[in-house]
Each structure stands twice: as C-alpha cells, then as structure tokens.
C-alpha cells in the first residue's frame, strides 16, 4: 500500500488556526514585552516575530495548535474567545520553552526554518530564555480569573512533559530486541506525556476558564492526550516515508539516527520473520534503505 508522504490539513483548519493566533497575539506580545529586553528578543525570535544579527530569515512561527485548542476550549464552554486567552498565552509560552530546551538537549541546529535559539544566541542564553518563558507562563495564568486552579492543571501537564521527555531520552539507551526493548505501549505512554499532556491541558484550561463543567474539562483533556499520541505517530511516519521537501526532514533521518520511532517499534513488536534482520540492520547502523523496506 502506498503511504501518504504529506499530511494536508483542510483549508478550514488553517483558517481556524489563523483566527485563534490573531485573537491571542496582542496578549502574547504584551506578555513577551514584560520580559528583560534581551531575553524577550530571544522569545520573539523563537516565536518567529523578528530576525537576528541582521541576517534575513524567513519569518516562521509555530502553527499555534496549543493556543488554538485553548481558545476553542473556551468557545466550546459557551464563552467568548477572550476567556481562553490567558490559557492560550500560558500554553504557547510553555510550548516555546520546551522547544528551546529540547533543541539544546538534542543539539538540533534548526527549528521553524531558522537556526535554533541556542545556535543563534548560545546555550546559556537559550536556557535562560526558556526559564523566563516558563516563569512568564505561570505568572500569566495565575493572574487570570480562576488562576490557582488553572495553575494546578498546568502543573500536572508540566510534570508529564518532564516524565515523557525523560522516558524518550532513556529509550535511546535501550536495545532493539530482548526483554529491555521499548514496547509500543511504552511508546504510547511516552508520547501521551511528552506531547499529549500539553495539548490536553490547552483544551481543558480553555474550557475551565470558559466555565465548563468538570466532566467536559476532563473529556477535552483526554481528547488532547489522544491527539498528542496521533501527532507523534504521524510525525514518525513522515520521518521515514515523508517527502523531505515538505517535511524539512532529511530522507530516512530518523532511521539513520536509530530513533525509537513508532513504525520501527511496531515492526519489531510484530514477531514477523523480517524483524530479526531489521534489528540487526538497526544495531549495525547500516543500509537504512533496506531497513526502511523491512518496516
Ligand atoms: C515542562 C519543566 C518542563 C520541562 C520540559 C524539554 C522538555 C521538558 C520536554 C520536551 C517536550 C517536547 C519537545 C515535546 C515535543 C512536542 C512537539 C510535538 C513539538 C512540535 O509541535 P508543533 O508541531 O510545533 O505544534 P510548532 O512549531 O508548530 O509550534
């Protein structure tokens, strides 16, 4: 079966994301404007609002999925978009913080089609900018009506993010086969925490600030968590079979780096006769083309 090599979101998804980004932008700018000017510049750079060192770079912020979920969560509760804005600002700041620190941990040179913050400003400043974004997120949410409960919800997601990131880092140290191998259910738990927790938090915080009933807040949290697992699996699929001109990922880069991605773990979990050969190729780090054909 031919797998899709790109994921095309319907036009109305782009329209909804753009509408939510516009609703949140003034509050996000106001929050970033309260930062130390140099630290705020790093935040603005990572959000795709400015260039650095005079070098022209393509303006590219994030998609704004988390801020959109917060706004949509508030609207789902019957409140106006503005009710969800403090949640949207907080989750977008936390997301940006986690990307800054993740890029340092992974040594990634590029993000959002430009050099990562640590590449552009240095590791120490990038750590500081991440810390400042984290602090600003908590401060913003605490100041909102219903702040203390909202901060508790965010704290649970933050602990999940750390848990998921730690699991992901440890996956790299584990073998491909045998009792210590990473099972697909462990992968799902990791993805739920690392990516799903903040998506669920975004939607549920928006709903909470919009006055939704606890059952609706919980349901949105669960939906966001499932979305995170799906998001991570699609990302893995595109990392193996995606069109590099669209994804910006190098061909078979994940396989070359021997990342524990879902398609590979599922193939090894399947007990298919080919999985022994696949594990041997991955261990040797050779012939990624043959490995890809075995998945
Ligand atoms: C919370 C205290 C604390 C620490 C964080 C660094 C870390 C610990 C966690 C890393 C979490 C991480 C990087 C998860 C991956 C999330 C992900 C799917 C990023 C890509 O999201 P998109 O596609 O990005 O929404 P854009 O660029 O569109 O915003």
Automatic annotation (TrEMBL):
InterPro entries linked to this entry: Isoprenoid_synthase_dom_sf (IPR008949), Polyprenyl_synt (IPR000092), Polyprenyl_synt_CS (IPR033749)
Entry keyword Metal-binding: yes
Domain of life assignment: Bacteria
CDD domains per UniProt: Trans_IPPS_HT
UniProt KW keywords: Magnesium, Metal-binding, Transferase
Family assignment from sequence similarity: Belongs to the FPP/GGPP synthase family.
Name of this chain's protein: Polyprenyl synthetase family protein
Organism: Streptomyces spinosisporus
Source lineage: Bacteria, Bacillati, Actinomycetota, Actinomycetes, Kitasatosporales
């Amino acid at each position: 079966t031919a797998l899709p090599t790109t994921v095309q979101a319907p036009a109305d998804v782009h329209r909804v994301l753009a509408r939510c980004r516009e609703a949140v932008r003034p509050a996000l700018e106001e929050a970033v404007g309260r930062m130390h000017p140099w630290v705020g510049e790093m935040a603005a750079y990572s959000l795709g609002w400015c260039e650095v060192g005079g070098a022209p770079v393509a303006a590219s912020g994030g998609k704004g999925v988390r801020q959109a979920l917060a706004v949509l969560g508030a609207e789902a509760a019957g409140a106006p978009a503005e009710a969800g804005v403090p949640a949207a600002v907080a989750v977008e700041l936390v997301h940006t913080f986690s990307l800054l620190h993740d890029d340092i941990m992974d040594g990634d040179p590029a993000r959002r089609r430009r050099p990562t913050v640590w590449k552009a400003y240095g590791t120490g400043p990038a750590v500081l900018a991440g810390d400042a974004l984290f602090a600003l997120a908590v401060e913003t949410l605490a100041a909102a009506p219903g702040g203390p409960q909202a901060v508790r919800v965010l704290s649970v997601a933050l602990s999940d993010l750390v848990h998921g990131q730690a699991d992901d880092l440890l996956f790299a140290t584990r073998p491909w086969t045998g009792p210590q191998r990473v099972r697909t259910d462990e992968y799902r738990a990791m993805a739920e925490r690392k990516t799903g927790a903040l998506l669920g938090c975004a939607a549920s915080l928006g709903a909470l600030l919009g006055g939704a009933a606890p059952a609706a807040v919980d349901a949105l949290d669960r939906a966001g968590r499932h979305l995170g697992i799906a998001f991570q699996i699609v990302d893995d699929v595109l990392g193996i079979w995606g069109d590099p001109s669209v994804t910006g990922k190098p061909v078979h880069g994940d396989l070359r780096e021997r990342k524990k991605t879902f398609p590979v773990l599922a193939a090894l979990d399947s007990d298919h006769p080919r999985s022994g050969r696949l594990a041997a190729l991955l261990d040797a780090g050779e012939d990624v083309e043959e490995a890809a054909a075995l998945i």
